[in-house]
């Protein structure tokens, strides 16, 4: 019996860490807890969990992709709808613009073709006579006139406060800014601005002065560079028709400037002369004429392509313009009225107005 006991004692001594019954192990029960779930089970659990998370993630990504595509489709459809609305609005606007422009064109056509323009009178004298008892002071300005026996109305500038008023302005030059180098068509129809420098037009003047039972006076008001003023007046003024190149016919002269239209000698006389321009030459220089010891083929060319009643070439051209800046010595116009002189030299003229007014006739 003694021997067996010693053997077992020796076993216990060989494994001193093995607990003896009733004795707690020093580290508590942790070792047993850790090993309570086998490792391969833990690995399997982890693998399953990973698969499940991956699956969920894939599902989420697919759902996100689907919703993104739907959102983009919705946005594009919305934009397309907006574009469709815009394009229909643009089409509508274009239609409206076309309708409006055709309306404007139609009303313009109507205004200028069918409806006669309401005129203020037959000429400025007529307007003055009809307003003088109604208006205390008739203003100067642009009026519409409709001369007798014509089918056209047109605008003119009426001077109502100069020497009794009633003047229809047929030419005005003040600053040299309107070009008077013009062909026949421009002189026939008129050019410039009525309130400023202009030439009313030979056709219009012809209509005014050729009304039946009328007689017109021509008044030329001149202003020199030194501000001296004077005038030339003719008590009977009329024009022949266009087939006779609007030849001028003048009555008796009065004024302080001298009668430059008739000049000093018969060959300088411009009364009864036809109107001439650079492209319609009626100046009597056939083939040429002598002027200040020079041979001149065209008076209009000699006077810088301006139009006037030239006669080889004469002493008057109220439409003259300077050849160039050097020659004009700062003059913006080159108005010629040779008989208006001071100390033997012609005045340098800076402005002129030609105007006509009806004068009482005995019949």
- CATH class of the largest domain, named Alpha Beta
Anisotropy-based shape: elongated
Tell me the CATH topology of the largest domain: Gamma Fibrinogen, Chain A, domain 1
Total number of β-strand segments?
A: 17
| Number of helices in the DSSP assignment | 8
Helix/strand class: alpha+beta
Largest sheet: 9 strands, antiparallel
Quaternary organization: single chain
User: Averaging pLDDT over every residue, what do you get?
Assistant: 85
Could you estimate the helical fraction of the residues in percent? 25-40%
Low-confidence stretches: 7-13, 325-330
Specify Rg, calculated over alpha carbons.
Answer: 54 Å
**Strand percent estimate:** 15-25%
Q: What string, H for helix and E for strand, traces the elements in order?
A: HHHHEEEHEEHEEEEEEEHEHEEEE
CATH homologous superfamily annotation of the largest domain: Gamma Fibrinogen, chain A, domain 1
Architecture of the largest domain, CATH level 2?
Alpha-Beta Complex
Overall domain count: 2
Task: Give the N-terminus to C-terminus distance in angstroms.
Answer: 188 Å
Overview of the structural elements:
It contains 8 helices and 17 strands. The protein is of the alpha+beta class and 363 residues long. The chain has 2 domains: 27-115; 124-359, Gamma Fibrinogen, Chain A, domain 1. The strands form 5 sheets. Strands 1, 2, 3, 4, 5, 6, 7, 10 and 17 form a 9-stranded antiparallel beta sheet that branches. A two-stranded antiparallel ribbon has the order 8-9. Strands 11-12 form a two-stranded antiparallel ribbon. β11 and β12 (294-296) form a beta hairpin. The relative contact order is 0.09. Mean pLDDT is 85; it is low at 7-13 and 325-330.
